[in-house]
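Handout, section B. The chain below has 468 residues.
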Amino acid sequence: MADIYDAVVIGGGPGGYNAAIRLGQLGKKVLCVDKRGALGGTCLNIGCIPSKALLHASELFEEATHNFVNLGIKLKGINLDLPGMMAHKDKTVDQLTKGVEYLFRKNKVEYVIGAGVLGGGNRVDLRLNGGGLRQVEAKNVVIATGSEPTPLPGVNLDEKTIVSSTGALALSKVPNRMLVVGAGYIGLEMGSVWRRLGANVTVVEFLDRITPGLDGEISKQFQRILTKQGMVFKLGTRVAGIDRKGGALQVILEPAQGGAREVVEVDVVLSAIGRRPYTEGLGLEKVGIKTDNKGRIPIDKHYRTAAQGVYAIGDVVEGPMLAHKAEDEAVAVGELIAGQAGHVNYDAIPAVVYTYPEVATVGRTEEELKAAGIAYKTGKFPFTANSRAKTNATTDGFVKMLADAKTDRVLGVHILGPDAGNMIGEAVIAMEFQAAAEDIARTSHAHPTLSEAIRQAAQGVGGWSMQI
C-alpha cells in the first residue's frame, strides 16, 4: 500500500518549505518534494539571496573605491576579486539551503528530491531524480512550484552572453557593456551590481517609466538617481532582435510604438522582463484544474483549487511574485489545513528594490488612490533634512506617506532612500494595526536615526513636520 500523508507539498521554495514546516509544527505528517536538489527554490538558490550577496558586496566595493574619500578615509590598492565575491555568494546559499534541511528534520518533514505529479484522486506520483517512481496518498496537496523567467520573444538564452537573472548571478568576468531588458526590480538590481563593478549599463524598457507599479513620484526620482550613478535608460523601447558579430552582440532596438531602429553593441544582454508561473508537468488536467490566461492556478479565499483537497500558493496564484507573500500564504494554508483560521492581509505586504538607494513600499500609491476616487492627505520628508542621513552622507531620496483624508488611517508608505527595506517594517506594522498617521507622528523615534524620516512624513500628513 502507498504511504499516506496528511499533506504533500510540491515545491521547496519559500512557499513550499514554510508550508511544510508549519504543517509539521501543527502535528501533521508531511512530505515535501522538490526536484532542484537544494531546498529554498528560486529565491534562495538563484534569486533573492545570491543577488543580495552580490548587491551588498558590490555596494561595499563602490563605497571603498569612490565614496570613502569623502569621509576622510583614503585607501590604496583596492582590487576586485570576482571569484572571491562569487564564492561568498555560493557559500551563503549553501549554508541557508542546509539550514532549511535542518528545519525539515526538526519539524519531522520528509524531504524527497524529485518531481511531484498529481495522479488523480488522492494519489501523488513522486518521480525521483535518481530514477524510479514512488506513489503516495495525500489527504491534502499544496502546489507551491513558483515561477520561472519570462522568455524574451525570439531570443535564445545561453546564460553566458544572453542571460536571465540566473546567468547574471554567475558571470565569469565583468562585461564592458551590458544591456538590461526590463526596468523592473530584477533588472535594476542586477544592473546595479555590474555597474558598480565596472560595466557600462543601458536599461531598455517597453513602457515609458521604470518600476511600473511603484508610486509615480518615487519612480521618477529613482530614475534620476540611477541616471546620476551612470545608468543609461531607453524608455518606450523594445528589443527587435539580437545578432552576434565577432565577439559582441548587436542589439536591434526600436520605439515601442514603431519608428526608426538603432543598433547597440554590447557584451552581455540580461533579459529581465518578468516571471511566469511554473506549472509544467504537475498533472493538473488529471484533477480538473485549468490555469487562467496568465498561467496561474485559480483559487478561492482559502487557497483551494477546483480539485478537492488541492491547494495552491505563491507565484503560481494571483498576486505579487514575492517570497514573503508566498511565506505568508504558506503559514495561512498550513493553518487552514490543520483546521485553524489562516489569513493574509494583502493590503500590508511590502515590496523592496534592493538597489542603492533602496526603494520600499507598502499599500496604495497616489495613482491607485486617485483611480479609486479616495480622498487622501500626503506627507513627505527628504533625507537631506534627516540628521543621521546627513552624517552618513546618504541623503538621496525621501519618505512619502498617504493617509485617508477623513479618518487619517495610513493607506500607503513609500520610501526611496538608505536602508528603506528595513524601515518599511514600521509602516507595515502600522498598517496591519490600522494606525492613523498621527499615531506614527506622536510615537517616539530614537535620535539620530533614519527612521525619524518616517515620523516626520507622518507629521507632514497633519501639516506640522518640524524638521523642514
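Note. The chain is about 30% helix and 25% strand. Compare this with the example in section A.
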